[in-house]
Amino acid sequence: MLHILASRPQRHTSLAMLEVWMAARGDERLARAVRAPLAAVPQMLFGQPPDAPPHPEWLALRCFLHGATQHSFAPDYDTHALADAVRWLLRHLPKPDGQDAVLARVRAAMRG
User: Nearest 5 degrees, angle CA 6-CA 7-CA 9?
Assistant: First the structure.
């Protein structure tokens, strides 16, 4: 997710999710309709079982992604600055096993 954010910071699927989530706070019918899909996001993105407490790394990543999404509303928002910040973060994180294969699949899917 961070690599995608670094390469395509202007695409905000997370922004749309945040807007639906916020709208659901004041609309019970919408909240019922989106509860299950929104609850499934951590499992789909991070492999986190729905009843498990989040690992610190997952929670930190989610907080960063939410912050990056909210920053897109700031008057000084700049897609290039966001991409640079994400690349800085990636340089400081350990590279997970299998990352190259996952990134190759993501790049192929984005081209196709």
Answer: 65
**What digits encode the pLDDT tens for the residues 26-36?**
999 999 999 88
User: What is the torsional sign of CA 7, 42, 32, 69?
Assistant: negative
Domain that holds residue 101: 2-111
Q: Please tell me the total count of domains within the chain.
A: 1
CA distance 63 to 71: 12
Tell me if 22 sits within 8 A of 46, measured CB to CB: no
pLDDT interval class at 107 (50, 70, 90): confident
**What is the C-alpha separation between 54 and 13, in angstroms, rounded?**
22
8 Å CB contact between 68 and 86: yes
Which pLDDT score, from 0 to 100, does residue 67 have? Answer: 85
Tokens at 34, concatenated: 């989106």
Please state, in angstroms and rounded to a whole number, the distance separating the CA atoms of residues 43 and 78: 30
Residue type, 55: H
Q: CA triplet 21, 41, 94: central angle to 5 degrees?
A: 120
